[in-house]
Amino acid sequence: MIASIPDHRAQDKAAILIEALPWLSRFHGKTVVIKYGGNAMINEELRTRFAESVVFLYYAGLRPVVVHGGGPQISAHLDRLGLESTFTAGLRVTTPETMDVVRMVLMGQVNREIVGLINRHGPFAVGMSGEDAHLFTAERKHAVVNGEQVDIGQVGEIVDVQPGAVQCLISDGRIPVVSGIARSDEGVYNVNADTAAAALAVGLDAAKLIMLTDVEGLYADYPDNTELISRLTVGELEELLPRLSSGMVPKMEACLTAVRGGVPQAHIIDGRVPHSMLLEVFTNQGVGTMVVDEIREAAELGAPTDIYQDQEENQ
Ligand SMILES: Nc1ncnc2c1ncn2[C@@H]1O[C@H](COP(=O)(O)OP(=O)(O)O)[C@@H](O)[C@H]1O
Ligand SMILES: CC(=O)N[C@@H](CCC(=O)OP(=O)(O)O)C(=O)O
């Protein structure tokens, strides 16, 4: 009997699947922290596709951990209550009244919805607040405007991460879904979700931090020029940071914290594109903006680079 040859479409699918092989091998068993921003969860279709991608990563042998935001959802709820949203240097000015709404929307609405969507596929997702089991401990953070410190209320800066409870969930085959609220002996704090995701990625020694947002990645000269920067070293990012504007500031600072803290790669990708996360993890071309530490990368590849040569020349 002669075996029938599959048509071209089936062969194309096989080629796409086999392209993922080196990435499956590289990331098998590795923890990947995914920051899911409020702007990338604006409709049911996107939220459903996001949950599918997370479950796909899980079945592919990675250990996904989700840290979610919900800024637009918090603002919408404050608006319904007749309360104004005020941001200073990209951070929400958080009065005690605002803090109650932040906590309610993040844990009672956004976290529940993500957990529910992932759990359509099996008993995987477990929701947690950064307050649980001392996951995130914070201190009060001040914003800096024109070199002056400005009081922005109950906004926190994470000073300690105890990832034990998250690690237990991962070992038990679960997908932790974490909101960026932090505790302290004085009370609770509202933490920017990008910052919380970076702190957790470092605490878990993650192989990657992926941030989903509502743009393709980091643009070189936003808003005048939307040319995408596809790869950037921590040194280049440090130089660029003072010229960035609000939304991207916490995001790029978070990439810097993660990579400086030992996470090999941090990525900003477009959460409006269904399954963009899978394109980032499993395809050769990648998507969005990737931040790497050039010295660490060179050491892993075992190849001499200009940096090492420069250092030798300077010695
Ligand atoms: N250089 C830049 N490149 C891309 N986007 C930028 C840049 N500077 C500012 N932004 C803004 O940052 C926004 C993303 O940040 P944010 O609104 O906080 O998203 P999220 O809810 O995903 O955390 C973009 O929609 C864009 O308007
Ligand atoms: C201090 C601070 O600004 N906290 C954010 C927390 C949510 C968040 O970061 O959500 P996105 O990722 O969707 O922007 C806020 O209150 O909006």
Largest sheet: 8 strands, mixed
Bound molecules: adenosine-5'-diphosphate, N-acetyl-L-glutamyl 5-phosphate
Strand order of the largest sheet: 5-8-2-1-11-15-16-14
**Which CATH C-level class is it?**
Alpha Beta
| Shape label | globular
H-E string = HHEHEHEEHEEEHEEEHEEEEHHEHEHH
Mean pLDDT over all positions: 91
- E-strand count: 16
Portion in beta strands: 25-35%
Low-confidence stretches at least 5 residues in length (pLDDT < 50)?
303-315
The name of the CATH architecture is: 3-Layer(aba) Sandwich
Produce the secondary structure layout.
Blueprint: H1 8-19, H2 21-27, E1 31-36, H3 44-59, E2 63-68, H4 71-80, E3 87-88, E4 91-92, H5 96-118, E5 125-129, E6 136-145, E7 148-161, H6 164-171, E8 175-179, E9 181-184, E10 187-190, H7 193-203, E11 208-213, E12 218-221, E13 225-229, E14 231-233, H8 234-240, H9 248-260, E15 265-270, H10 276-282, E16 289-292, H11 294-301, H12 306-314
Parallel strand pairs: 1-2, 1-11, 2-8, 5-8, 11-15, 14-16
Antiparallel strand pairs: 3-4, 6-7, 9-10, 12-13, 15-16
Helix pairs in contact: 4-5, 7-9
N-acetyl-L-glutamyl 5-phosphate (X2W) binds next to helix 4 and strand 4.
Your description of this structure?
It is a single chain. The protein has 315 residues and is of the alpha/beta class. It has one domain: Carbamate kinase. Helix content is 42%, strand content 27%. It has 12 helices and 16 strands. The strands form 5 sheets. The chain has an 8-stranded mixed sheet with strand order 5-8-2-1-11-15-16-14, with helices on both faces. Helix 7 packs parallel to helix 9. The protein is globular and about 70 Å long. It binds adenosine-5'-diphosphate and N-acetyl-L-glutamyl 5-phosphate. The site of N-acetyl-L-glutamyl 5-phosphate has 15 residues, from helix 4 and strand 4.
